[in-house]
Structures are given as C-alpha cells and as structure tokens.
Amino acid sequence: MEFSIVFFEQAKFDVHEAKIWYKQQKPGLEKRFAKVIKTSIITIQKNPFIYAIQYQNVRIAHSALFPYGIHFYIDAIKSEIVIIAILHHKRNPAITHKRS
C-alpha cells in the first residue's frame, strides 16, 4: 500500500527552526540536515509499520545523523502518514501530545 505524506504546519516550522540553527553553526549544514530528514521521511513512506507505537498511536523514526525524531501516525483509512513533529531528542516530547 502506498501512503502519501501529510505535514502539520508545526512540523514544517520545526524543520525551519532547525535549519536556521544549523546554518548558524556552519553554513551548508542546514542543507545536510534537510537531506537527512527527507531521506528519513522516504524510509517512513516505504514502510511505516517498522516503527513501534510510542504513545497515542504515534510512532517515532530517528534520523541517521542528527539527533531528531520524526513523530508521525498512520491514517490507514486515508492512506496517509501524518507527520506531527520533527523534534530534537532533548526537546520535551509532550509538545507533540498537544498536536496529535
């Protein structure tokens, strides 16, 4: 089954904030971050069920190089993967409970 990807606006903002921070650390690092996140999302899209449910039907995929988790749930009826947050591991995950 092919799933489409849907983003909460807050998840897009999460990525935007992270890209700004990484660019301040080292120019060009924000592009690498974006590429790693995109690759992780493609992996999620190919097989979302490999990730265990962590809370409230939400699964978390961890990026390979950056300390970020992609919080998502699967809407099987609509054949969608809904990304609710892309957060640094040190951030409070309770942020996503309000979003989901």
The CATH superfamily label reads RelE-like
What percent strand?
25-35%
Specify the CATH architecture: 2-Layer Sandwich
Q: What's the CATH first level?
A: Alpha Beta
- Please state how the strands of the largest beta sheet are arranged side by side: 1-5-4-3-2
DSSP helical segment count: 3
End-to-end C-alpha gap: 23 Å
- Principal-axes shape call: globular
Task: Name a few traits of the molecule.
YaeB-like fold; five-stranded mixed beta sheet; 3 helices; 5 strands
Can you walk me through this structure?
With 100 residues, the chain is of the alpha+beta class. It has a single domain (4-99), classed as 2-Layer Sandwich (YaeB-like fold), CATH 3.30.2310.20. Helices cover 41% and strands 29% of the residues. The protein is built from three helices and five strands. The protein has helices spanning 9-25, 29-46, 94-99; strands at 4-7, 53-55, 58-62, 68-75, 80-88. A five-stranded mixed sheet has the order 1-5-4-3-2. A hairpin with a 4-residue loop joins strand 4 and strand 5. Helix 1 (9-25) packs antiparallel against helix 2 (29-46). The radius of gyration is 13 Å and the shape is globular. The two termini are 23 Å apart.
